[in-house]
Amino acid sequence: MNIANSGLTAGRVCLLLRRFLAAVCALPFACMQLSGCSDPPADFHQSLFIFGTLVDITVHGAPDEQAATAVEAVDEDFQRMHREWHAWKPGGELVELNRQLAAGETTTVSDFLLPLLLQARTLSIQSDALFNPAIGGLIALWGFHSDEPPPGPPPPVTSIEALLAKKPDMQALRIEGNRVSSDNPVVQLDLGGFAKGYALNRAIARLRSYGIENAIVNAGGDLCVSGRHGDRPWQIGIRHPQGEGVIAALAVADGECVLTSGNYERYREYEDVRYAHILDPRTGWPIRHVASATVIHTDGGVADAAATALTVAGPDDWQRIARRMGLVYVMLVDEKGTVYLSPAMAERVQFAEGQASKTIIGEL
User: Fold this and answer.
1) Helical H segments across the chain, by residue range
2) Cα dist. 219→23, 55, 230 in Å?
3) How buried is residue 77: exposed, middle or buried, by Cβ count under 10 Å (0-12/13-18/19+)?
4) Any residues with CB less than 8 A from the CB of 172 and at least 6 apart, and which?
C-alpha cells in the first residue's frame, strides 16, 4: 500500500519523509523535495470514509470554497459507486446483475456500470485471466464477502475444485450494447480488484470539471494525482509490506495513478496460517509468493487490475504479464523481501537504506 506524502503539513507528512530521506539525503533530488517541508503551502484537505477505507483528498492552489464544492461532488460520486458497484451488499446494481446471471437471465445495465464491465473484461484478457473479476463465487466461498473475514478452516478442497471446474471467467460474459448475459451461471462478478483505481480516475476528472488542476486523491494508500504540489511534483512513499515505514519514495507526475496490491492487509487466519484475500484464479487458493505489487499508470483501473494480476503472477511470471498489459512502471516485493523492478521503475524510486541491494531489475 502507498502512503500519500504530499508535503501537506510539517507533522504527519514531513516526519515520514524526514525519517526516510535522512538515509538518502546525499541524493540532490531527495534533499530538494525535503526542503519544502519547512514551509508548506496552504492546501485544502478533507477526508471521506468510503470503500471501507479512509479517502484523503488534498487540493492545492484553489480557494477553499471552490475546493469544498468539488470534493462534495466527488463524495457524491463515491457514495454512488460504493452502493452500485458493491459485490455483496444488497440494493446495488452489481448485486442484482449477479442474481440474474446466476438465474441465466439477460439484463440491461446502466451506463454507470457498463464501462466497468467492458474494461474489466478487456483487462482480464490482457492479464491472461490472472485478473479475473468473474470469480466472485470463489471469493464468497473463502469468506471474503464480508466486512470481517470469518474464523475457522479454509473451505473444503472439493468445493474449490468443483467451482473452478465450471470455469468462471470474463470471456463467458456477453455484452451487447447495455445487455449483459452469460451461459455460465457460475460467473459472479466482483470488481474489487480494480474498481478503486477506476474510481480514483473518476475523482480526478470530477475535480478537474470544477476547475481543480492540482490535487491528490488517496484511498487507503492507492492514489491518483493531477498537476503539481506547488513548484514540485506530488511526493509519495510506498509502504514496506513486511514492516513499518516506507520501502521507497517517488515523485508522481500529472495524471498518474499509483496502485498497490498486497497480501499483508486483509486475510483470514487459521492455526497460525494466514490466507490472503488475493486468490489465484487458476488454483482457487490465496497467493503466498508475493507480498505486494505496485504499478504506475495514467489509468487507475489498469494500474489496479495490473497490480492484482502481477501479485498472482509472482516473481517467475511478472515480466510476461507486464508485457501483455503494456506496463512500464512495475515493482514487486516477494515474501523474502526481494524487490523486482522494471527498468523504468528502477529509475524513479528512491529506496530506504539497505533496500537497494535486494533489488532485481527485469527487462520488459
Assistant:
1) 12-21, 28-35, 64-84, 93-102, 114-126, 136-141, 157-165, 195-209, 300-313, 318-324, 343-348
2) 28, 4, 22
3) middle
4) 134, 182, 183, 184, 187
Q: State the pairing for strand pair 350-351/246-252.
A: antiparallel
Cell numbers linked to 286? 490465496
Query: What is the sign of the dihedral through the CA atoms of 25, 30, 36 and 37?
Result: negative
Say yes or no to pLDDT of 205 above 60: yes
Q: What residues have CB less than 8 Å from 347, skipping those under 6 apart?
A: none
Does the pLDDT value for residue 274 go beyond 50? yes
pLDDT of 5 strictly over 90: no
Q: Averaged over 161-170, what is the pLDDT?
A: 97
Q: 126 and 325 in contact (C-beta within 8 Å)?
A: yes
CB 292 within 8 A of CB 262: yes
Q: Is the pLDDT of residue 255 over 60?
A: yes
pLDDT band at 264 (very low <50, low <70, confident <90, very high): low
Q: Positive or negative CA dihedral for 14, 243, 130, 281?
A: negative
Report the b/e string of 187-209 with b at 16+ CB within 10 A: bbbbbbbbbbbbbbbbbbebbee
Phi/psi for 29 (5° steps) reads: -60, -45
Q: Which of 12, 73, 79, 18 is nearest to 43 (CA)?
A: 12
Q: Cell numbers at residue 82, please? A: 460504493
Q: What are the strands of the beta sheet with 2-4, ordered from one edge?
A: 2-4, 234-239, 246-252, 350-351
Distance in angstroms (rounded) separating the CA atoms of residues 55 and 71 = 11
| Integer CA distances (angstroms), 147 to 1, 80, 89, 143, 154, in order | 19, 19, 10, 10, 17
Q: What is the largest CA-CA distance in the chain?
A: 63
